[in-house]
C-alpha cells in the first residue's frame, strides 16, 4: 500500500476508534505503558489502533518496517495536529513568541535519574549472578524463579519510567504554575511516577527474600525509592488525588 494511503488509513482508524463508546479518552496519558500487563487494552485507543492496523506489537526494533511505521504514526499525528490547530486559528508553522526553553532540572529529577542509571548499571553488573542464581533457585522451586524473574522485569520496566514521569511532572508544573487553571498533568504524572515507585518497592521485597547476598544493594535501592517518593509527594502534595481516566474511575 502506498505511504499516503497507509497514512490516511491510520488517521481514519484512529478517529473511528476514538469515537467508540467503550474507549476511554486519554487513558494512555497516565498509564504505565506496559500494554502486555494492562487490563484496559480493549478500551485504549492507542492499543486498539496498533492492533487493528495489523501491526505486530513485538516488532523487532531493528526491523526497517518498525521504523517505517514509527515515521508513519508521527507524520499522521502531525497531520491531525495541524488540522486541529487550524480549526483553533493556530498557525503551527509560525509559533511567534512562544517560549520553548526547557525549565532547569530540579534536584528531585536528578535524584530520579540517578536511580535509573544505578539500576541500569546494577542489572548489567549482576547479570552473571542472576543467571547462576536463577538456575539454583529453579532447581529448588519453579514458583520462586517466576517471582525473581517477574520482580526483575518490574524493576527494569519502571526504572526509566519513574524518571520520565518525574521529569514530566516538574516540567508541566513549571509551564503551568502561573496559569489561571492547571490541567492536572503535573499531578497525574507525579501519581503514575509514585505508582511505579510503589510497584518497584514490592518487586524489591521479593528479591530481598530470594537473594540474601544482594541485601545491601537491594536496601540501598529501596531507600533511594522511598526518599524519591517522599520528595515527589512533598513537591506535588495533591498528586494521589488525581483521577487517572479509566484506572481511577
Ligand atoms: S492504557 Fe494500557 S493498553 Fe493503553 S497504552 Fe496504557 S498500558 Fe497500553
What does this structure look like?
The chain is mostly helical. The protein has 2 domains: 3-87, no CATH class; 107-241. It is 65% helix and 0% strand. The protein contains 8 helices and no strands. Helix 5 packs across helix 6 (142-176) and helix 6 (142-176) runs antiparallel to helix 7 (185-210). The longest helix has 35 residues, at 142-176. The chain is globular, with a radius of gyration of 21 Å. The relative contact order is 0.12. The mean pLDDT is 86. Bound molecules: iron/sulfur cluster. The site of iron/sulfur cluster has 12 residues, from helix 2. Residues 27-28, 31, 33-35, 38, 40-41, 44, 46-47 line the site of iron/sulfur cluster (SF4).
Amino acid at each position: 500500500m502506498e505511504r499516503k494511503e497507509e497514512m490516511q488509513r491510520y488517521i481514519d482508524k484512529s478517529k473511528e476508534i476514538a469515537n467508540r463508546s467503550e474507549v476511554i479518552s486519554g487513558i494512555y496519558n497516565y498509564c504505565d505503558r506496559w500494554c502486555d500487563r494492562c487490563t484496559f487494552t480493549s478500551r485504549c485507543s492507542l492499543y486498539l489502533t496498533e492492533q487493528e492496523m495489523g501491526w505486530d506489537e513485538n516488532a523487532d526494533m531493528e526491523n526497517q518496517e518498525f521504523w517505517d511505521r514509527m515515521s508513519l504514526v508521527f507524520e499522521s499525528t502531525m497531520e491531525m495536529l495541524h488540522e486541529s490547530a487550524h480549526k483553533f486559528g493556530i498557525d503551527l508553522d509560525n509559533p511567534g513568541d512562544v517560549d520553548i526553553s526547557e525549565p532547569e532540572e530540579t534536584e528531585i529529577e536528578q535524584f530520579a535519574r540517578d536511580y535509573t542509571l544505578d539500576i541500569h548499571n546494577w542489572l548489567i553488573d549482576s547479570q552473571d549472578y542472576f543467571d547462576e542464581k536463577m538456575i539454583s533457585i529453579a532447581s529448588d522451586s519453579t514458583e520462586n524463579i517466576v517471582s525473581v524473574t517477574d520482580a526483575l522485569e518490574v524493576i527494569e520496566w519502571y526504572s526509566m519510567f519513574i524518571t520520565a514521569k518525574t521529569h514530566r511532572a516538574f516540567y508541566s508544573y513549571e509551564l503551568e504554575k502561573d496559569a489561571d487553571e492547571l490541567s492536572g498533568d503535573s499531578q497525574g504524572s507525579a501519581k503514575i511516577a509514585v505508582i511505579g515507585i510503589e510497584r518497584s518497592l514490592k518487586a524489591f521485597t521479593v528479591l530481598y527474600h530470594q537473594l540474601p547476598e544482594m541485601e545491601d544493594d537491594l536496601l540501598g535501592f529501596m531507600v533511594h525509592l522511598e526518599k524519591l517518593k517522599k520528595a515527589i509527594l512533598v513537591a506535588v502534595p495533591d498528586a494521589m488525588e488525581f483521577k487517572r481516566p479509566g484506572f481511577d474511575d
